Amino acid sequence: MKSWLTRSLATVILVLVTSLGLVAPASATSRATLKAAATAVAFETVGGSNYAHYKAKYPSSLNWGNDGCSVPNKVLLAGGLGVVIKVYGKVFESSCDRHDFGYRNFGKNTTTPGTHPKFSPTRTTKNRIDSRFYSNMKIQCDRKFGGIIKAPIRATCKAAARTFYEAVSHRADEAFFG
C-alpha cells in the first residue's frame, strides 16, 4: 500500500510540475536544437533540402510563414522598382521564402502570425540573412537563365537581385528588428 501511494503521489507531482511549466516534458525540443535547425534552413543554398526536412520535423516550433517577395503597395504602384518586383518576384520566390524564414525566426519583429523564437536579433545576423538572400537570388538567375544565349537576361536578373538585396539591406530594419 505504501509503495502504491508513493508512486501515485510522485505521478501527481510530476503532472503538476510539468503542466505548470516548471520542467519541460522529455519530448520537448531544446532551444539549441531549434536554433540549429533554423540556422540550417536560413543559411542553406536555395534548392537545398533543409527547408522541407525541418518544416516536416518542426512544423509549429519555427515560423514557416512567408508572403513571397512582398513589398509595400506604394512601391508597387510607383512603377520602377515595382515593375522589377513584379517581373522577378516569381523567379526569386524560394529565396524570398528563406529570407522571410530568417527574419521571422532570428529577428525580434512579432507582427507576423506564428511563433517568434528571436534566436539572434542582431545587426550581424540580419546582414548574414540579407547576404544569403542575395547569393540565393544570383543562384536562381544562373539556374533559370543559364547558357550563352540567355546571358543578357541573366545579367538583368542579377541586377534585379542586387536591387532586391539593396532594398532589404537598407530599408528592412523594421521587418527584422520590430
Walkthrough of the structure:
With 178 residues, the chain is mainly alpha-helical. 63% of the residues lie in helices and 0% in strands. The chain contains nine helices and no strands. The protein has helices at residues 2-19, 31-42, 50-57, 73-77, 81-88, 93-106, 123-144, 151-171, 173-177. It starts with a helix and ends with a helix. Mean pLDDT is 84; it is low at 4-26.
In short:
This protein is mainly α. It has helices at residues 2-19, 31-42, 50-57, 73-77, 81-88, 93-106, 123-144, 151-171, 173-177.
Please specify the SSE layout and strand pairing.
Layout: H1 2-19, H2 31-42, H3 50-57, H4 73-77, H5 81-88, H6 93-106, H7 123-144, H8 151-171, H9 173-177
- Could you tell me the radius of gyration in angstroms? 22 Å
Rounded to the nearest angstrom, the distance between the terminal CA atoms is 58 Å
Mean pLDDT: 84
Sheet of most strands? none
String of helices and strands: HHHHHHHHH
Structural class: mainly alpha
Low-confidence stretches: 4-26
Got a strand count?
0
The proportion of strand residues reads: under 5%
Helix content: 55-70%
Number of helices: 9
Give the overall silhouette: globular
